[in-house]
Amino acid sequence: MAISASSPSKIILCGEHFVVYGAPAISIPVEPRNSATLSEIPVRDEIRLKSSLGEGVIKKDGSYEGAPALSNLAATYKFLHDKLGIGGGFDAKLSYSGVPKGMGASASVCSAFAYALCKSYGMNPTEQLIFDATQAGELVAHGARASGIDAITVIRGRPQMFQRHFNDSPRFDFHPFSLALPEHTCFMVADTYRGVRSSTLDMVKKFAHGVEVGSTLPPELDSGQRERIISPYMPFYEKIKAQLKPDGDQKLLGALLDRNHTLLAERGVSCDEIDEAVEVAKGAGALGAKLTAAGGKGGAVLIYCRKFDTFAITDALAKRNYRAFELRVANKGTEVGEKKG
Ligand code: MEV
After folding, report:
1. Of 23, 32, 115, 333, whose CB neighbour count within 10 A is largest?
2. CA 233 to ligand 1 center in whole angstroms
3. C-alpha distances in Å from residue 45, one per residue of 42, 76, 228, 274
4. What's the whole-model pTM score?
């Protein structure tokens, strides 16, 4: 029998990187979806992974051999194995939708994989279980600093206001909200990939360097140090949030996103291609543009524009070999697909 599960992709509207240190951030689940399909095989002690990013094998004890890009799935598996005794016996076909880096593909595939694995064992996993299993994979993909925002956004499939707390309980605070934009405006994404892709882990380390905390992890900093890191961003969160309504000020929202980009670039997580795509989009009429998520080489750019400017912006970016497309907000989180066989 084969069981398939899927999750949406995501973008971060504001708060990436700062969220790692306790700032609130806004994230949005978007199409297209990524999926994992598990088919039973007679070899009970392994899971064979196949995807466009390469292949790999997870052994029953969680040890992994294969493409490094899939090693996060071994961590997700190990979490479920240790907690619930889930074992091997599957071919896993992982389908990455090809969204630009920064749109949550790793969390999306991890959560779909975790869900399909639980379902294959006849379980009805809770949201918390899928979050914890996905976050185990994210800690591999983002290093020990993964905030949890990617995992919760793709699992819930609703726009989220997300904040990580360090000293009090609960550790994560997330509130779904209904996303509205000033009338006649929309978001686009540009893909700046030109053969080199920085890893999220490297960019999270680069930001740590940019805010002068080196290798000290966020929970090891004192609250005053974390406050120093997030305080330049905090006014943007409040002001951006205030414009997310049909009668919001589109020019102001665009300007705030521009300034949020500058804040991130000053901390070292932009790159020449991202800065160029931001400039090209702005030159073609965008109201604002910023890097979204980790940034770095091959990172995604979030463009905010009037709907009637989307063609001009797509065209101007295509002339510089940057693919761009209008964002479609997703309305479903992780869910099981059809069972076959
Ligand atoms: C990556 O999508 C978002 C970052 O803030 C890392 C994280 O929050 O785990 C860069």
Report:
1. 115
2. 15
3. 9, 16, 49, 44
4. 0.94
